[in-house]
Amino acid sequence: MTAAEALAAHQARAAQVLPNPAGLNADAVEDVRRRVLPSLDDEHVRSVTVALVERAAGNYGWGAWAPGRLFPDLEARRPAWTVTDVGLLFDLARRASSRSAEAVLRVAVGAAEGLDAAGRAQLVERFWEAQAIDASSAARAELVRRLMQLADTTGNGVPGWAGRIWLGDGWSRAAVALLRSAPAGTDDLGPLLDHALTLTSGPRPTKAWVQRAAGLLDGRAGLLDLLHRLLHLAHNCRPESVEQHYATFPMRVSQHNADLVRGLLWAAQVSGEEWLVHVVLALEPTLHEPKPLNACYAVLGRRGDADAIAALVRMQRATRHRGKLKQIAAALDEAAAAAGISRSELTELTIPDCGLDRRRQRRIGAALIEVDERARVRVTWDDGADKTDAEVRRATADLKKALADERARLEDLLVEDRDWPIPVWRQRYAEHPVTGGLATRLLWTVSDGDHRYTGIPDADGRFTMADGTNTMPGDAARVRLWHPVDADPEEVRAWRAHILDHELAQPFKQAFREVYLLTPAEEETRVHSNRFAAHILRYQQAYALMKERRWGSNYLGGWDGGYDGEAKREFPAAGLTAVFHHEQAVDGGGDPVQFCSTDRVRFERGRGRARQEVPLAEIPARVFSEAMRDVDLFVGVTSIATDPTWADHRTDDARFGYWQAFAFGELTANGQVRRQVLEHLLPRLKIRDRAKLDGHYLVVDGRRHTYRIHIGSGNILMSPNDRYLCIVPAGAAKTPGVRFIPFEGDAMLSIVLSKAMLLADDHKITDPSILRQLG
C-alpha cells in the first residue's frame, strides 16, 4: 500500500466516528473527548490521529484550531503503531506549517517511541530529517533529543552534541553527517556547543565568556581539530533550501544556526588557532546572516595581527555594503586601539611584500615576476619554460590585487593630515617592494627644518622638484602626501607641466586632481552646498558608482522610505561623514527606478542621536574637496546629459531643457582639467592639423563636416547649424593614437579623444547609423 492509499484508508475510517473533524468547535471537542474517544479501538484511534495530523499539517491558524486539543488524549491511548503508519506521520510532519510543526511532530515522535528496535531502525533517516523542526528553542531541544534517542541503533545513548544544531540548512546537514561518524573530539563537543549558544547578544563576548571558552578548549587537540572542520564546513558545504521570512532560500548557515556559528568563531579566536584567518576569508563571502557575518570581522579585529589586519583591509576593499563597512571599521579600530596607533597606521604596517625583493622582483622556478617602472606586473619566463605554472598564476594575481589595494589606500591618504619621519616613510613607502612602485610616482611635501618643498622621490633618496632641481632631505625631515588644494595655482600649474613634459603617469589623479573650494554661495547656506543640486542622473549607474566610491546609500524604490536617498561617505581620520541627498525623479513609475534628481551635500559629526551638522567653513579643505569631487563625478558620469541617445524622441520631455543645458554647458572642475590635458596632447596627435580647442569644445575638421565635441559631456554638434550628432561609444572607451595620458580613470577623456580621431577621418566611417546622420 502506498502512502497516499494508507492516508485515504485512515481518513475513511476516521470519518466513521468523526464525520467533520476539522469543523469541530471547542464545545464539540469536549464532547468528543468525553463520549467518543473512550469507546474507540486502537485501529480507530490510529486513524483519527492520522486524519487530524493531516488536517493540522496544513493549518495556518493552529493556535485557534480546537481539534488540536484532542492530540494529548489520543497519544495517551498509546495504540500499537505500525512502521508504515509512523512513517506516514513523519511525512505529514515534514509538510506541516511553521505554526503546527511542533505539535504534529510531537505526535509522530510519541508514536515512534512505541515501536520496537527493529521498527525504529527502518525509520532512522526520517528521525534525522525531522530535526529540522521550526519550533521554539526549548521545545526543539527536547524533541531533538527524543529524535536522537530514536535514531540511536547502537545503544550508546544520545551523543553530547544532540539538540544543539538545528538540522535543515547546508552547514547543519554537513556537520551532523560528520559528527555521526564520531571523529576525535566529539565527546567534548556538547559543552562547547552549549557555551557557544550563550553568546546571543552583541558581536563581542564578555571576559567571562572568553575565559570559559578557553577552559573548554585547553589541552583538547581533538576538539580544536573538530572545531576547525566544523567551521570549514560552514563555507564548503552545499547550500540547502530553507524557509525564512515566508520564502525559500538556498542557505549554508541560516538564522537558526547563526548564534551557534558565531559562538564557534569566537571559540576559535580564543584558542589562537593559526587557521582562523584563512577560514574567515573563505567564510565571509558566503554568509548572509548578520550574526556570524559580523563575528567574522570582530574576531579578526580582536586577533589584531598582520594577517588579520590584511584580511580586514582586503574585505573592506571588496565591499560597498554600508553595514559591512561599519563592522570592518569597528574591527580595525579595536585592533588599532589595542596597538596604541591609528587605524591608518595599523593598515600600513600590514602591507604584504608578496615575496618581492628590494628590486621588486620574485623568482618562482622558471618565472621572474616583477613590478615595472609604471607599477604594472610583468612576468618573464625562461626559454622553454612551462607557462601554465599554477603557483606563478596565483602569485601574479595576488601581486596585482595588492597593487590595486595599495593604489586605493594611497589615494585615501589624500584626505588624511598625516606625516612621517623620513626614515619611517622610506621604509613604509619609497623602499617597500609593493608600495614603492606607486609612491615614487607621486608628489610628496617635505618639511626639513625651515625648508619646505614638494618633489617626486628618486631612487637615490633625493626629491626632484617642479623646476628639475633636486635635494636630499635631512634625517629629521618629515614627509606628507601632497594635495593640490593646499598649493597655490602657480605651483599646481608647474607640476602639471612637469608631469606632462616628462610623461610621468601617476597611479591616480594627483597633480591633475580637481580642487573644490568653498564658494560665496556655500558660505551663505552655511551648513549645506547646493553646488550639484538639480541634476538628473541615471539612477542605476549612479547607485553603482556611489558604491564603487564607497558612499553607502539606501536603494530607491516603490516602498516606504524608498523615495529619498542619503549616500554617505565616512572620513574617519577627520571624524566626519559627508551626506549626499538625492531622490526619485518622476519618470512615469516603474521598477527599478530609472532616474534620480540630486539635492544638497552636507557634513555631520557623531552617530545616532548625537549626530550634528557641521558648518562647511569648519570642514578641512581636503575633506571638503574630496567629497565634492566624488559628487561631481557622480554627476559628470551618470547625468542624462552624458548619454548621447537620451534626447532621441524626447524633445517633448520636461527634462530636455536640462539635458540641452548640461550637455553643452559650462565645464565643471573635472572638465577643466580634461581641457588642460587635451591642450598638451593635441600637438602630439596625428590629427593636430585638424583639431583645436575652442572654449568648452574640441573642434575637429573632417572632410564632410566640422564637429564640436563638448569636453565635459562628449556630446557632438556638427556644421552646418550645430546639428546634433549621436555616436554611442562601443564598449570600453579606447584612445587610439595616444601614447601617453598622465593619469588613469577618466573615461570621458578617452571618449572625447576617440570621437575626435573617428570624425577627423569621417570619409572612412562605415557605420550606417552615423552615415545616416552625416547625410
Give an overview of the whole structure:
By secondary structure, the chain is α+β, with helices and mostly antiparallel strands. Helices cover 44% and strands 13% of the residues. The protein has 30 helices and 23 strands. Strands 12, 13, 14, 15, 16, 17 and 18 form a 7-stranded antiparallel sheet that branches. A 6-stranded antiparallel sheet has the order 6-11-7-8-9-10, with helices on one face. The chain has a 5-stranded antiparallel sheet with strand order 19-20-21-22-23, covered by helices on one side. α6 (101-112) runs parallel beside α9 (137-151) and α13 runs parallel beside α15 (276-283). 38% of the residues are buried.
Low-confidence segments: none
Q: By helix and strand content, what is the structural category?
A: alpha+beta
Oligomer: single chain
Query: What's the overall average pLDDT, rounded?
Result: 88
| Shape summary | elongated
Radius of gyration: 35 Å
Helicity, in percent? 40-55%
Distance between the termini: 81 Å
The overall strand count is: 23
Largest sheet: 7 strands, antiparallel
Total number of helical segments? 30
Beta-strand share of residues: 5-15%
